[in-house]
Amino acid sequence: MTGPQHHARAARTAPPGPPRRATLRLLKQLFTDRLALMGDNAEAYGDVVRIAIGPKAMYLVNHPDLAKHVLADNAANYHKGIGLQEARRALGDGLLTSDGETWKQQRRTIQPVFQPKRISRQAAVVAAQVAGLIDRLAAHDGPVEILHEMTGLTLGVLGRTLLDAELGGYETLGHSFEAVQDQAMFEAVTLSAVPQWVPLKKQLEFRTARDDLRRIADELVEQRLANPVENGEDVLSRLIASGSQDGASRERMRDELITLLLAGHETTASTLGWAFHLIDEHPEVGARLHAEAADVLGDRLPEYEDLRRLTYTVAVVEEVMRLYPPVWLLPRIAQADDEIGGYHVPAGSDVVVVPYTLHRHPGFWTDPERFDPGRFTAAERPPRYAYLPFGAGPRFCIGNSLGVMEAVFVLAMAARDLELRKVPGKVVEPEAMLSLRVRGGLPMTVHRRHRVSRSEAA
């Protein structure tokens, strides 16, 4: 393991970084290849990098100890930053974008919905939703857009487990969230230099999407108010019970629901898309998944207790999230001057912890570009803050347990019953938006497997 890389200089010294003459190249990467922007500079300049683009400077942090400082030890000094600030136009002050006392109150309201005991009771609901997905995929004749199917699944699971509501009728949700992400990232990379009133296509689509999301959130609240659930444990019930029904409270509920709908489905859908791509690229992984699912599950649906038995499937999910973390960027804004890795970081600076580059740090990962689920079945695991698929510190992802259970159930049941193969000629590239998704979708063909019994698997 390595320690933070920095020169022995006074703390008032700025970190190293690309020269000013590289601004045009950096701007191009900011628009077209944000992953290369982060990875190239971390490789060239070390674990703390100052990237100056125009009037703004961004501080890239790429070491577990320093990530811990920003995300946990001194978390109060770092509020949500680039990308999430811009997304606030659509998401409002939801759990993803809020700070301070507002965030603490929201977290206290929603936290009980994600308690392990309650999530374990949702396993049968998740398994039933996944079974419906497997049946739909098996019925396809010809290529299927797997990301579209994963989005439909994750929204369905979110609705049933967290909202006690049916989201199947809201077919515009996926498209609206895509438009919100596109606009938020456009504003971030242009440093909000384009006025919001300019009638660009992206801005017009964003306004339509924002109105659509607000309409859906309001409808969900109205439906629950008209049909209250006695002692309801779901998010809608808790939000309604936590406040009055004045205009401000209704707006806060709307913000929270929109945020939950985005964060609750997008990350898991992206992880599953990357998983199917990587399994197709590594047939030996698919074969081992198939054998484990047949051995553990036989011909029944998975249960919560199976998470302890599907050890290789869990390791595959963890390795997928290492290579393609759904939340690839953890942006913050320093509220006061700070020292990171011996370097001075002024108040107001954009500070980013980038799981995508941290998960590839050669000091903590052997052959980091290789897809190897065995990393997560070995006795020795990397340091806690070298692996951040769900963030860390007070803002650790509240839905991580549900997301992992859903992904494990999907991979186990799909590996047992189906074989998915990418359409020939499909080039798979990452697209770094608010989440790390597959650019342009993922068409795959579906082939049925013979479902084996436990004795055959043995």
Helices and strands, with pairings:
Blueprint: H1 23-32, H2 34-45, E1 48-53, E2 56-61, H3 64-73, E3 78-80, H4 84-91, H5 100-110, H6 116-121, H7 123-138, E4 144-145, H8 146-163, H9 173-189, H10 201-226, H11 235-242, H12 247-281, H13 283-297, H14 311-323, E5 330-334, E6 338-340, E7 343-345, E8 350-353, H15 355-358, H16 400-417, E9 418-422, E10 430-432, E11 436-438, E12 443-448, H17 454-457
Parallel strand pairs: 2-8
Antiparallel strand pairs: 1-2, 3-5, 4-12, 5-8, 6-7, 9-12, 10-11
Helix pairs in contact: 1-2, 4-9, 7-8, 7-16, 8-12, 9-10, 10-12, 12-14, 12-16, 13-16
Low-confidence region ranges:
6-10
Biggest sheet statistics = 5 strands, mixed
What's the count of strands? Answer: 12
Oligomeric composition of the shown chains: single chain
Rg over CA atoms, rounded to whole Å, is 22 Å
- SS element count, helices: 17
CATH architecture: Orthogonal Bundle
| End-to-end gap | 40 Å
**Class from helix and strand fractions:** alpha+beta
CATH homologous superfamily (4th level) name: Cytochrome P450
**Overall tally of structural domains:** 1
CATH topology: Cytochrome p450
Q: State the share of residues found in helices, binned by percent.
A: 40-55%
At the first level of CATH, the class is Mainly Alpha
In order across it, which strands form the biggest sheet? 1-2-8-5-3
Give the overall form.
Answer: globular
Averaging pLDDT over every residue, what do you get? 87
Give the SSE string.
HHEEHEHHHHEHHHHHHHEEEEHHEEEEH
| Strand fraction | 5-15%
